[in-house]
Design a protein that fits this description.
homodimer, 464 residues, alpha/beta, Gyrase A, domain 2, Four Helix Bundle (Hemerythrin (Met), subunit A), Rossmann fold, 3 domains, seven-stranded mixed sheet, six-stranded mixed sheet, disordered N terminus
């Protein structure tokens, strides 16, 4: 970071921290060396500069003789604040007129408007949180589901950073030893045990692999769980979708193969966002060209699925055919759920025939049209989500910047292994290790560029 | 107020105090005896029950094992709070998911959702502010102009209430004396000097009259200043309106009498909202039926005007004609402004002829088409507003409920005077005085009904 950036940060900044619009109260946040002393000029009630940190004061804000509002002013004295600087929070009446007047008052007194994310950026630059934690703050504000919330909280509280920092620490030790060798290069010594290095690289690679794998799941957390409903024509896919959505989005008809377009909709179940995709009937062979396109689309959708729901008609599906389908689903290596429909119309013999299957695979019996077993079905979605979560590493990567850095790190680690195989010299090895370290450091912000910071914080909202 | 209402207020309430929507932070407000102790159950960091009032504490809010958010919790200990009860304000990340989770947490623990205005209602019932002040809080949140803001601040800080209370105090003294007479009625004494009472009633009536008059102005504060632009056809009214609005709303043409509909638009000048109304050409006699309707409308609009702007063509208006117009305007008893247009095309002789007029009346010279003198014109609007403000009593009535109560009080005072004239007995007089007192008490809420409170606070936003 250039010294220019630090100079910028000598300035005191202000922003509305609460959403715009009419409300009972609004909160304005001011940060910077002069935050308290400037506020003290407008505040009548007591001398704010003589108050301890983390205290709240009632009084009026004045512009000359004119009272702008009765306010509560909270004082945070550096470094015990969000940004690490002096911070003042003004809680005023939630009128846009009053908010404008207060901001104008500060602007007239040498305070400037905060840029998007500038409070959090200052917190990062002042060492209050690392870059991955800062990014989690934005994720937390944007979170709309329990899973996204959990991942953001975990990351904000440093879970992810701790893991990265540990890997980094181990690599740094090796880098140090190898660079020490370089100082003694004429003596041809090896301080860094090459076999230990190989072992370490393997260990780091396996952790990173897990983190990379968690990224798919991380995306699910951010964007919701995609459930693709597949099954033969007339299995009742559209009816099931309607029942799940409680509304008539898909066209339901008695004629096999009615649904040709993929229909999507979102439902929140126990705080988890599910995106359901109904598909055209899955028939292997069809003379109908449009139907064929529908099947192509279905296959594409199945690739995007986080969970595949295979729906079958309990009455008209031979167990043998079902088992074949199960093997095809297993080959996709995705969580899937077998759902037997039309339980309301089924004979006891059919159910008995399915018993063997139920022993090996989870089958949920429902009647989409009679709304039987729907709660059980929803519970099964949640079970799968929890199982996935459990399988994912404790730490989940949700940020594509982190994903990219981890991928790059993985590549550099491969380079190290290749170099060790071909017994390259210590100085070249050191370069590869430095490269791997660089990518890890990028995540936590131990190494950053101005552009990167600019990019990250510009996506924040104003006032944070 | 029934005891039932007080029982309601044993409950602890919660509401989002900041506007809904994504923001850097959101503030939740909890009020009631258990506000702090219940919050303490979810807050990890320190024991909130042992913290002094007006302090802020950083920590995490948990639901069982799960961390919901890192928050700042502010403690206000009764009676030193907005409501007069124990109050907790939680500043959390501005995610609707987190807000929902926190509210759910409190609802599960015996706290209930606050009704609209319930925090302010509690403040009123706990004697933190009177009813007129409480109503001003809602006005303050809704204020959009400097004038509305000033009136609301003044009322919230008790200016209006103080005046009402003083009148009330004086009447109460008399009422007490007259009621004392009743106790000694057999002895036929007069403790209350009737001529002093007449004098007092007159004094109160004159104050109330002023307050009632300020109501028109109070409405202006709330709704903006209506400026009706009148003048002969082709004086340039539409051009002036366009220049003021900086856009082509009115149809401008060279043919006299083009503008037939009243065209309105709003402009904020120095924080004051002005509503400009252009009118059809003011011609006393016209054969054109449509034009005639336009003139009728103009006269109606002039009745609604707060300021009348009389525009005349400097070149084509004889001074004599202008003076006649000025007398007609004076008869309307409204602030008016004479504006001479087409200064760009005028001869020196014409201006000299107008000099006498300028000595007695304020005349602004402009060119609507060349945009000359427009800033001076705007300044004149502001001057008139300030003059009106100055003329209005210090206290301005903006609330129709107060207006109604003052009108009713005025009627009761008339009854007292009539009663005194016809020398009615002390007990009847006492009833009239009680009646006048009742209406004054209604304003400050010294006397209220549940329905009234319900009605007033239901118009508040949730969280206030």
């Amino acid at each position: 970071m250039s010294s220019l950036r630090y100079l910028d940060f000598q300035e005191t900044i202000i922003a509305l921290a609460t959403p715009p619009g009419k409300g009972a109260i609004a909160v304005l946040r001011i940060s910077g060396k002069e935050a308290i002393s400037i506020t003290n000029r407008f505040f009548k009630g007591k001398n704010l500069e003589k108050q301890p940190s983390h205290t709240v004061h009632f009084g009026v804000l004045v512009d000359g003789e004119e009272i702008i509002d009765e306010v509560l002013v909270t004082i945070f004295i550096a470094p015990k604040s969000y940004t690490g600087e002096n911070v003042v929070e003004i809680s005023c009446h939630g009128s846009s007129y009053i908010i404008r007047r207060i901001i104008e008052l500060y602007l007239k007194n040498g305070v400037r408007h905060a840029k998007a994310g500038e409070f959090t950026q200052r917190a990062f630059l002042n060492g209050k949180l690392d870059l991955a934690q800062a990014e989690a703050v934005a994720d937390l504000i944007a979170c709309e589901t329990a899973l996204a919330h959990r991942a953001a909280i975990q990351q904000m509280r440093g879970g992810f950073s701790a893991q990265i920092k540990e890997l980094r620490q181990q690599l740094i030790q090796f880098a140090a030893l190898i660079e020490l060798e370089l100082d003694f290069s004429e003596e041809d010594v090896e301080f860094a045990d090459r076999s230990q290095l190989i072992e370490l690289v393997h260990r780091i690679q396996s952790v990173i692999k897990e983190l990379l794998q968690s990224f798919q799941w991380g995306n699910v957390l951010k964007n919701g769980v995609t459930v693709v409903i597949v099954g033969k024509p007339n299995a009742g896919k559209s009816t099931l979708l309607n029942t799940l959505l409680n509304e008539e989005k898909a066209i339901v008809s008695e004629i096999a193969g009615t649904t040709r377009d993929c229909i999507e909709d979102e439902v929140v179940i126990e705080g988890h966002l599910f995106r359901f995709i109904d598909t055209a009937g899955l028939r292997e062979y069809t003379s109908d060209r449009i139907e064929e396109i529908g099947i192509e689309k279905t296959k594409a959708k199945m690739q995007q699925a986080d969970i595949i729901l295979y729906l079958f008609d309990l009455q008209n599906t031979p167990v043998k055919e079902l088992l074949e389908e199960v093997h095809r689903l297993e080959a996709l290596k995705k969580p899937f759920l077998l759902v037997g429909n039309k339980i309301d119309a089924v004979t006891k013999e059919t159910l008995t025939a399915l018993e063997d299957l139920s022993l090996n695979y989870q089958v949920v019996f429902i009647s989409a049209i009679q709304k039987i077993g729907i709660e059980r079905l929803k519970a099964s979605f949640i079970e799968i989500v929890h199982r996935q979560e459990f399988q994912a590493s404790n730490v989940i990567v949700t940020n594509s910047r982190h994903y990219e850095a981890l991928q790059n790190c993985q590549k550099s680690l491969n380079e190290i292994l290749l170099g060790l195989q071909s017994k390259i010299s210590g100085d070249l090895l050191a370069i590869d290790i430095r490269q791997a370290l660089y990518f890890l450091s990028e995540i936590t912000g131990d190494i950053t560029t101005e552009d990167l910071l600019e990019h990250i914080f510009s996506k924040f909202c104003i006032g944070k």
